[in-house]
């Protein structure tokens, strides 16, 4: 069966002809289509083309393979215990692209993709100490030793078993 297509336009003007079933995984796109129809291209000025392609890969796969809700809080630091293999591989990407994917999922209002990308980030930091998290995300520690000591003292209950 052939389904109608809608054109989505990235921030650089790159056009993507997408099955309307995949495109409407986005609440934003679905609302625009409901308002103006599928004949006019849908501009997505906050999403770069490479990120939009990745988002559409997710949406196209999940048209026929519905995503399962990710349990919260996460009980594992491995996505393989939480999501299907395809989803796990999908978010096994460079950190910068992962964050852009998360922002795009939020902007496009694709909750399952937002949950998946957030779960990936959560597994990256689950069980890690502050210094390890800083290293993972290249965050500079801007506390003086005195400030850090005071904060540790105020929050020492966090380190209790």
Q: How does this structure look, described?
A:
Strand 1 (5-9) and strand 2 form a beta hairpin. This protein is mainly alpha-helical and 161 residues long. The N and C termini lie far apart (57 Å). The chain is 52% helix and 7% strand. It has a domain at 49-127: Potassium Channel Kv1.1, Chain A. The chain is elongated, with a radius of gyration of 20 Å. Helix 3 (49-64) packs across helix 5 and helix 5 runs antiparallel to helix 6 (111-125). The protein contains 8 helices and 3 strands. It has a 3-stranded mixed beta sheet. The longest helix is centred in the middle third of the chain and has 16 residues, at 49-64.
Low-confidence stretches: none
- The total of helices stands at 8
Second-tier CATH architecture of the domain at 49-127: 2-Layer Sandwich
Structural class: mainly alpha
Output the CATH topology of the domain at 49-127.
Potassium Channel Kv1.1, Chain A
Helix-strand topology string = EEHHEHHHHHH
Distance between the termini: 57 Å
What general outline do the C-alpha atoms trace?
elongated
Helix content: 40-55%
DSSP E strands, number: 3
CATH domain class name of the domain at 49-127: Alpha Beta
The spatial strand order of the largest sheet comes to 2-1-3
Oligomer: single chain
Evaluate the radius of gyration.
20 Å
What is the strand content?
5-15%
Q: What is the CATH homology-level superfamily of the domain at 49-127?
A: Potassium Channel Kv1.1, Chain A
Largest sheet report:
3 strands, mixed
Average per-residue pLDDT, rounded, comes to 92
